[in-house]
Amino acid sequence: MKLLEERIRRDGVVAPGNVLKVGSFLNHQMDVELYDLMGEEFYRLFKDSGVTKILTIEASGIGIACAAARYFKCPVLCAKKTESLNLPEDVYTSKVTSFTKRKTYTVTVAKDYLPSTDKVLIIDDFLALGNALFGLMDIVKQAGAETVGIGIAVEKAFQEGGDRIRATGIHLESLARVQSMSVENGVEFAED
Amino acid sequence: MKLLEERIRRDGVVAPGNVLKVGSFLNHQMDVELYDLMGEEFYRLFKDSGVTKILTIEASGIGIACAAARYFKCPVLCAKKTESLNLPEDVYTSKVTSFTKRKTYTVTVAKDYLPSTDKVLIIDDFLALGNALFGLMDIVKQAGAETVGIGIAVEKAFQEGGDRIRATGIHLESLARVQSMSVENGVEFAED
After folding, report:
1. Which of B33, B65, B66 sits opposite A67 (nearest CB)?
2. ipTM entry
3. Burial level of B103, CB count in 10 A (0-12/13-18/19+)?
């Protein structure tokens, strides 16, 4: 999606440690007009997948997921992150290790809101190692539902998450794929 | 907002300990069509307040804030909750004590995204004791900006937060005001 790439080039800031700061428009301050266009693009990419539910994970994917859901005319289900050990029995859970934050957390979704008949589109803002996405896919599988696709705003294509997910055969679409980035030279995108 | 009250009557579940469960449509699974109507209603209520930015706090207010922002044609700024003590200098912070979760956390907003010229509408899903809202108002004040209003989806009017905020003179609007609730009798709303 050229518009998102141009916005990242213009307003994104590369910080040391492979950090891409897009807080001015994507995940701290949120440009809802851009979100709408991203939602429309996700609809174009997945409109034939029979999506009945969009699944995201708190917090920064929520706005993008809601924008997409308006086009799909389906609800958004937001998985929660918790570090607590005592969880009720009426939730699906999956353990996720975050390398960037160096901790393990548990992703939870209430069983009531994920029936086995759901065809799920997972949406999130960033894809790097993909661990959170594997946790969400695991939950969909536990529910007996189907992950019909994954839509990502920004993929760090130089990290392994995208390849790991594509290797499973899941239909993955990233609106912007960062091939390389550096403080000196900024961001380079992968060719389509 | 009658539509929201009716939805709470129909799909809300009162659990022991004054807990109102609205996870099926408001804050775990999200009905984006309802969100749109709520956003439109917030616009009707605050359209003459000169809103330039909507401020919310992660995570469950984000979707509603984004829906409202489409009507106001302004960005959403999402304050982060953190328990960390080492924060960068480029953020405004405010300490908030959560009685329900029995812990204190720090709310942060990047200084870059909250200029003193902003007229801020704060939006959140629930209002009970109001501590998170006072933290957000504190941050707006630190920035030298102005809180022009607060829009809430569900106010627990039998708790003190609403009165505390109205006592400051801030324009507060809650789309549904729960006057009382019990496991036996369900939810009663305050008269307008």
Report:
1. B66
2. 0.95
3. exposed
